[in-house]
Amino acid sequence: MISDRRRVRLRSALDEWFVVVVVALLGLALLGGWGAYGAVADDEDVEQRTVEAWSTTGGFDHGATVQEENEVFPVGTELSDRSVYFAAVAPELEATFTYAYDAPDGDVAVSLEADRVIRSVEDADEKEERAEYWVTNETIAQDETEGLAPGEEHATSFSVDVPELAEEAEEIRDGLNDSTGTLETAVVVRASVEGTIDGEPVDRVDTYEMALEFDETTYAVEAPAAEERTEERTEEVAVAGSSGGFGPAALALLGVGSVAALGVLGVARRKGTLAPSAAELERIDARYEREEFDDWISRGSLPAAVRERSRIEIATLEDLVDVAVDCDRRVLEDERDGRYYVVDGEAVYVYAPEGLEDGEVLEVDPQEAEEPTVIGDGSGGEDGSDESAS
């Protein structure tokens, strides 16, 4: 809550800087109006954004049939989607690759080609891309379809004798007398898509890989079961207004508030009530000056005889408090005449607030004036009528 003194100072500042304040409020009013209009107008703006248009899904299902007698799996048992298979009892891996896409609409031709791949690559597992020393590949399956719609699937199946593949890889390596790099075997499927998806022409090739790792008795299979890939495109979308955190209502309120403030200031300036009067300033200053020195002031009524002693006029209440400190006395505020006194022996130091400096003396009841009052100034007096003690 703003105190009276701050309120008076604020009014004085507004009066002194009236033209500057008016210009500032006019600027805020224009800013509020422009911002509110711009926020509403910007609702129709658009910007370029990247959005998901459609997606594809490709993945492998794999398994092996037990072909040799053993103590664990009966012959003919279907082992499926295992991370590791036993080469001695189930050497032939059977797999199916399935492709599909998801979009609002589409009509494409899809060609799936599975290649058995043997290659030697750089020994640098931490690198994202490794150098390829040599590679051989053989197509083991190929299937095509026309008019594939969203949600429909197209698949191709193949089989690989993993121990035989591993043996072939070692023979190639020995034939090249190659001891560098890492030997890898895999089945790589290329999905070629051509047609129209979601109204856009499409001609692309996606590659999926099923890695095979043989270690004499077992072989491991690592392949995606359902890898989703997203196709994005740029399109125009509606965006919110450029007014930041201020909505149209807030900006409009800023403009209206500025106009209202201009009106209030103008009326107050015209009526002469904007700037505080001199009397009001003096009253406020006197009140706060009185509160500032309250610890040094006592209220009471001085006898007429004391007020008639030799008087020394003091210009300010602060100066009178300094006198009281020097004399080791208190400042006495006479509740009848409004003046402040410091009684020191036969001398009386007096401060008269604004409006009493003309020597005005408030009317005092004669009977009250004759009553002895102890004022505590330390001066001698047998009858005690003007006797004082600190």
From TrEMBL:
Protein name per Swiss-Prot or TrEMBL: DUF5305 domain-containing protein
Acidic residues bias locations: 359-371
Domain of life: Archaea
Provenance organism: Natronococcus jeotgali DSM 18795
A Pfam family that the UniProt record links to this protein: DUF5305
Region (Disordered): 359-390
InterPro entries named in the record: DUF5305 (IPR035185)
